[in-house]
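Example record

The entry below shows one chain as it appears in the dataset: sequence first, then structure tokens.
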Amino acid sequence: MPWRETSVMDERLRFVARLLEGEGMSEVCRDFGISRKTGYKIFNR
């Protein structure tokens, strides 16, 4: 089975959607493999 390819924008939208649903920043960042600093940058854009 091939890897599922997604665009960077799709990943960012998924990231923000999870935060808006009420999940914590630390948990979401851990799942996406990014730092909290990067997570806040994405969220604030």
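Notes for this example: Residues 8-44 form one domain. The two ends are 34 Å apart (CA to CA).
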